[in-house]
Amino acid sequence: MLDEEIALDAIKHALRALRKRHLVEEAAHGPAYIALSRPFISQGSEWKEKAESLETELQQCYKAQSRLSEQLVVEVAESRASKSLLQDKEDLIASLQNECSQSRDECTRLKELLDEKTQAVELLTSENQELKAQLEETRVRADTAQAENKMLIDRWMLQKMQDAEKLNEANAVYEDMIDKLKASSIEQLARQQVDGVVRQSEEGAEYYVESTIPTANKHKISAHQGGCAALVFEYNSNILISGGQDQTIKMWDTSSGSLIRTLHGCLGSVLDLAITHENSSIIAASSSNKLFVWDKDSGRLRHTLTGHVDKVCAVDVSKFSSRHVASAAYDRTIKIWDLQRGYCTNTIIFPSNCNALSFGMDGHTICSGHVDGHLRLWDIQTGKLLSEVAAHSLAITSISLARNGNVILTSGRDNVHNLFDMRTLEVCGTLRASGNRMASNWSRSCISADDNYVAAGSADGSVHVWSISKASIVSTLKEHNSSVLCCSWSGLGKPLATADRSGTICTWT
Length: 509
Prior knowledge:
509 residues; 2 helices; four-stranded antiparallel β-sheet
């Protein structure tokens, strides 16, 4: 642009200089022209024509000069436009070169990425081939193992058939021996029957007594401060064991109503009690997240079982072996304890808190009653849930296993008491009363020693007794002044013991 302006200024300057020169020459030639015109007046007309001709030529020169100037201006403008267009083209070329460079870099990067992907695909292909080879090898081994397994099963079935034949032979011998034993023991059994008590011939077996319907209060004992929520009788004895809010365990002679012994060492309120079937150890479930085990004869604290992280609300001892104890806590776990070693052997986790539990007669099954109203059966070895049933619409508060082991009693906050067949978990009886209301989540009901009656306390202080066969109330006991929390029936058939929220224990005959 600057070069064009300089050229245009130069052209204008040349035109001015040309005009000035022309004027100077015209002025310089004027006198000569006049002088010459005088001697040649005769030739004036000729010179005049020449002058006019020259003037005409000069005018034409001016016109030509003007046209050239205009043409020069147009060409200068076209030159400017061409330079501007050239600059635009150069900028476009630079931009295209930049884009081309970027595209070249992107192409290089994509090529490198393609190489990496190609290598990865080749590696995956190689691994896939190796896996196919391994799969084929594994399939061959599986086929071989299946053939060997079939052979082993055939051998095992053959062995089982042989064992079954031997067992049948042994059963036949055993039945012959039983028949002979029955024939020889009829006279001995008749001699053992005294006052309705049949002493069974097996060593260590329990007495069987026909339970009587309780109607009268025999003793009323102020046992614990703050309430009593746990009662249990010794096996084949009239000694009652109670646990209360005052963190003590007390043993009572129900014949006289006198206190035999007080066991100390429990931390927290006692929520449940259990005793081993040979009456050697007492176990208490505590609100301090622990279980406490005492030696019954010496009153010495033997074990403190720790492992639960919330209050322990239920405990029971295996009816098959006094070594195994089960406990349930509000940490949603059931723990199985080895009482000889004093540590936990298995933990069962479940979705709803457990309020009550009981061992089955086989020693390998646990029944548990939960806040969600379900009754569940567990295998203590594997922790596997064997079966469950929706027993109540509200929380289960109590579980009591009949002495025959075939029926289990469940009580719930819906104020219903259900009897279930342990073999099928089907309801075989339902007991209820308009005035019977469960007082807490741990209100304990019980079955009588002869499996004929059910006793349950109520929030109004009364105790209701049902006949299982008739499914009706046969007795209503009223002596408590506060909510009855637990009931326990002696294995000798009487008495029935009940305890309330104020810590009072009543025995009924």
